[in-house]
Specification:
335 residues, alpha/beta, Arc Repressor Mutant, subunit A, Rossmann fold, seven-stranded mixed β-sheet, 14 helices, 44% helix, globular
Length: 335
C-alpha cells in the first residue's frame, strides 16, 4: 500500500528526469565521452554558465549518473557505452526522444480537459527529420539493448513456416534483422516512409542480411501495401491509431497478405479494466498527449477489430508488461 511519502516521491521524480534530459540536451555526455573534464571546460564545451554547470554536474554525480573526483567529472564505467554517442548500445537517442515528449507531457492538464493534443504543441510537434531520426534511434536502442527484438522474433514460431516477411513501418529494420537471424529461410521487405528507407538501408548494409531484405517506400495510412508476403509484422503501430484507423490498416494487410498468411501484432495488450500492465496504462496517457485518437487496447478490442476485417484464428501468443505482448491472426485460405 502506498504511503503519503510514496506519493510525494512519485510527484517529485520529475526533478531527476529533467536533470538527465537537460544533460543530454546540453551535450554533457558527448563532451565526457572523450574523458574526464572539470566544470569550466564542460561549461565552455556546452555553452553554459559555470554556476549552472556546477550545480547540475554535482547533482548528477549525487545520483550516480556521473562520478566526481578532485573536481573532475566522468561517466561511470558501467554507463560508458550507454551514454556514448558512438556506441551501438547508446541510449542517447532514447533521451533525445524523451526530451521531445517532455514538452507534450507538460501540457497534460489541458489535454485531459480537452481530450485533444493542446494548442501549445502545434509549433513543436512538426515532424522534423531530426525528431524522426531520434525516434527511430530510440526504438532501435530499446529493441536491441533490452533484447526485445530477439525474443519477439523467437516467440513468433509461425515464422519458421513462412517464406517472406512484410515489416510494416519497419523503421531501421531492427525486427526484420532479428527475424532473419533466427529463421534462415525467411526473407523480408521493410515498408516505411520515403525518408526513413535510406536510414534502413544504411543500417541493413552493415549486417549480413542485406541480400535477404528488400525495401518499399510508402505510407501505410494512404498507400496500398506490397503483395507477395505470407507473414506481416505490425510492431508498435496500433497504439498510435484509433480503432477506426486500425480497422482500415488491418483491411489493407488482409488484402496484401497471401492466402493463409499470418499477421503478428506487437504492442501493449491491456487487461479488461485497463490498469495492467501499468506501463501500458501510462503509455495510453502518452498517446493522449501525442495523438488525436491513439491509445492502448484490450485483447477483446484487438480481436474484434481484426475479425471485422476478415482475420480468423486470432490469439494471444505472448503476454508481456513492456510493449512486448503478441497477437497473431490468420488470413483464411481461399477455397
Amino acid at each position: 500500500m502506498l504511503t503519503p511519502f510514496d506519493v510525494w516521491k512519485m510527484s517529485s521524480a520529475f526533478q531527476t528526469a529533467r536533470m538527465i534530459l537537460s544533460a543530454s540536451e546540453l551535450g554533457i555526455f558527448e563532451a565526457l565521452s572523450s574523458g574526464a573534464k572539470d566544470t569550466k571546460k564542460l561549461a565552455r564545451l556546452c555553452r553554459s554558465s559555470v554556476r549552472g554547470m556546477e550545480y547540475i554536474l554535482d547533482a548528477l554525480a549525487a545520483i550516480g549518473i556521473l562520478e566526481k573526483n578532485r573536481g573532475m567529472y566522468r561517466v561511470p564505467k558501467a554507463l560508458n557505452a550507454a551514454l556514448s554517442p558512438d556506441s551501438e548500445d547508446s541510449i542517447l537517442p532514447i533521451l533525445r526522444h524523451s526530451s521531445s515528449m517532455w514538452f507534450k507531457w507538460h501540457c497534460l492538464t489541458k489535454v485531459v480537459r480537452t481530450g485533444k493534443p493542446a494548442d501549445c504543441l502545434k509549433e513543436m510537434d512538426r515532424d522534423t527529420k531530426d525528431k524522426r531520426v531520434a525516434f527511430i534511434g530510440a526504438m532501435h536502442a530499446i529493441a536491441v539493448g533490452r533484447g526485445i527484438a530477439h525474443y519477439i522474433a523467437r516467440d513468433c514460431k509461425v515464422a519458421s513456416r513462412r517464406k517472406r516477411l512484410l515489416d510494416i513501418g519497419g523503421a531501421s529494420g531492427t525486427y526484420a534483422v532479428a527475424f532473419l537471424n533466427i529463421y534462415p529461410k525467411l526473407k523480408a521487405t521493410i515498408f516505411d516512409l520515403p525518408d526513413v528507407i535510406p536510414m534502413a538501408k544504411a543500417r541493413i548494409e552493415k549486417t549480413r542480411f542485406a541480400k535477404r531484405i528488400g525495401f518499399c517506400r510508402g505510407d501505410f495510412d494512404s498507400d496500398a501495401l506490397p503483395k507477395g508476403h505470407d507473414l506481416a509484422l505490425l510492431s508498435a503501430i496500433i497504439h498510435q491509431n484509433g480503432r477506426k484507423e486500425n480497422r482500415a490498416l488491418y483491411k489493407k494487410i488482409y488484402s496484401a497478405l497471401d492466402d493463409g498468411g499470418t499477421l503478428i501484432i506487437r504492442d501493449h495488450v491491456m487487461s479488461d479494466d485497463r490498469t495492467k500492465p501499468p506501463l501500458g496504462a501510462i503509455f495510453a496517457v502518452n498517446m493522449l498527449v501525442a495523438t488525436d485518437g491513439g491509445g492502448t487496447y484490450t485483447f477483446k478490442e484487438i480481436r474484434e477489430d481484426l475479425a471485422s476485417t476478415g482475420f480468423s484464428r486470432i490469439k494471444m501468443i505472448r503476454k508481456g508488461d513492456n510493449m512486448d505482448s503478441l497477437v497473431s491472426a490468420e488470413k483464411r485460405l481461399q477455397t
